[in-house]
Structures are given as structure tokens and as C-alpha cells.
Design goal:
The protein is globular. 29% of the residues lie in helices and 28% in strands. Helix 1 packs across helix 3. The chain contains 13 helices and 16 strands. It starts with 7 loop residues before the first helix and ends with a strand.
Amino acid sequence: MNESLLNIDVQKYINANLESDLHSLLLKKSPFENVTMLEIVQQIKGKNVARKKFPYLLQENIVFPVQLSLEQSSSDKTALYKADFLHGNSFIDLTTGFGIDAYYLSKNFNDISLVEQNADLLDIVQHNWTVLGRKAEFVNQKLEYFLGNTNKTFDVAYLDPARRDSNKNKVFLLEDLSPNILEIQDQLTTISKKVVIKLSPLIDLKYVVSEVKNLARIDIIAIKNDVKEIVLTVSGEGYSGITCHCINLESEDATFDFNFGDEESVSVTFSEPEKYIYIPNNTILKAGIFNLIAEKFNLKKLHPNTHIYTSTIENKEFPGRVFEMAIIEGKQIKKKDKYNIIAKNYPLKPDEIKKKYGIKDGGNQYLIFTQSKKGKLILKSV
């Protein structure tokens, strides 16, 4: 870490240029002898990311790492959610990175260890934690080396594997992550009673269940219907089934809990659209519980490949959007009117629909273009 970044004049310059064009700034010569313009721009980027993802770091003398470390960091919202169900005496983050998760999760523990193989990144985290008044043991080692040489055990071990290969391409299989989860999973449960692993929202859940030993819990975490993380909890003390939790933060949706595998034993009834139309949030879609959600809320499905549901009586507890709608014909759509367009299991995409019918985005009205078992449908909000 370049300690010259903490110089008062450097900090003033960074704060004065938070709204500046960064490309133009990079072309300028740094006004400081020991700080490059590239380092200054990185601090500006870090502060701008912090505004949205972790505002607690918007204070004097906080130092930000390179862009990649910022991108993989959790937001404060998802970190706070995980902190709610993780407690104990001892905690270790085996892939500390920028330390956002560690900062929130460690509040529930007394003995905290942070492992990070990148010495410069760990220096930044240690500096920031000192500024924030937090204490931990900071260990600059590769995770694999640490696992093979520690005698300590922990109540909770946390890791967020790197999801890019040596060519900086994104990877999603457990064996392609760094570290390779499948290679170290037995070691992880020897050092901790509970292992928590953060994964990409794109990973396949059935694949995860088939490969991860002693899996006890899966959390599918979204913010405003954008799935951000899949979080696994592995129990070193054994388990009886896998509980799943669908969470849509910053929404009015209630958490939906179920047991993995329940979907296989549930059937669904199909129907033409009734008075109310239901579209599940993206955590439900990610979970793949298309029949289970219908059974839980006493709904009927429009089509096997259309994940839209219907009922005659409104169920306000449904985790997603609920509309009162009626079937219309295309000729009833007035050109130049404004609608919010939703297309599910329909031949045309929203932009193609807008072009075909000459309609514009916006307003309070919705049009849903979809299919029932009888064929294509257009639904209009009432």
C-alpha cells in the first residue's frame, strides 16, 4: 500500500475530483511526487463504488484496492443479511479480498482471522480496519498452505472463491474456481463446524447439490429482484436435508423457504388466465420451484414453459408481482399509448412488440405477452 495516499493534500485532491472525467484525469500529470495519477483515479473509482455498495467506507483515510477486488466484493446489504445467521466465538475468512463480508460477519465473533494471499491487498484491509477500530489476526498466506498447516479450529469459516481464470475469463464450475472447492472441501470441515461459501448467481443449483458434501443450506440472495449471490452453508457436524431460502432484499417480498427436492414431489394444475396474474421474483425462478410455488399459494399455471400463474382470489403474500389483468386482442392496443411490456414464453421480444404495435415504454399500464396451453395471449392490466 502506498502510504503517500494518506497525505492530506492527496486526500483533498481525490475528494475534489470525485465527479471528474476519469479518462481526462488519467492524461494529466500527477501533482504529487510519490502518487501516480493511476493510483489517484483508482481511489476515486473506489469511493464511487463505495457510495452504492458499502457507504461505511466513505470516510477519511480509507484506501481502496484495484478494480477487480472492488467488483467481487459483496455489498453491505448482502453482507448484513449473512451476518444475521452467522454467530459464534471464532471466525475466519479464508479469501478475505477487500474484506467487506469479513467486516460485517465478524461483528458476531470475538476471535477473528483474515487470510489473504495478496500482501498489498491485505495491507490495505489491515490499514482500513485500524481506521475503523476493528481488530483481527491478518495472515498473508495462500489458502491451501494455511489449511495444510493450521492447528486452529473455528466456529465459522467463510470463503468467496475467485471467479476468473488466469486469462481473467469468468468461470462457474466449482472445480474451476480459485481455490478449487471440490479439492479442499474435506479440509474445510476439519477446521470449522460450519463452512459458508459465496458463489456466482449463475451457478446451477442441482450441480452444486450433487458435488458439495454435507450441504445443509442454500441462500439465494437478490437485491431489488437482481440475484447477486448464491450462499452455501456446509455443516461439519452432519445434516438432515437441505433448506433453501429465497431472499429479495429492498423489496416487499417475504422470504420463501423450502426443502431442496420438494419440487420433485409436487404437481401443478394448468388454467387459462383468471382474474389475478402472478410473476415470481428472480430468486424463485433461480430456485426452479415452479410447481412448489403454485402449491404453496394455491395457484394455477398457464403453461408448462410459462412461469406465470393465475387465481381468482388475490394472494398478497406471493414473492413477486401480482396484477389484476384481462385478456385482450392485439387490435385493442392503441398506438402511441404507453405500457410496461412483459414478454414470457412469447415469440417476440419487448422491443419487437413495441415496434409491431407502435407503443411506447412507461406509464402505469402493463401488457403481458405470453402463452397458455391453448396458445398465445395478450393480457392487459385492469
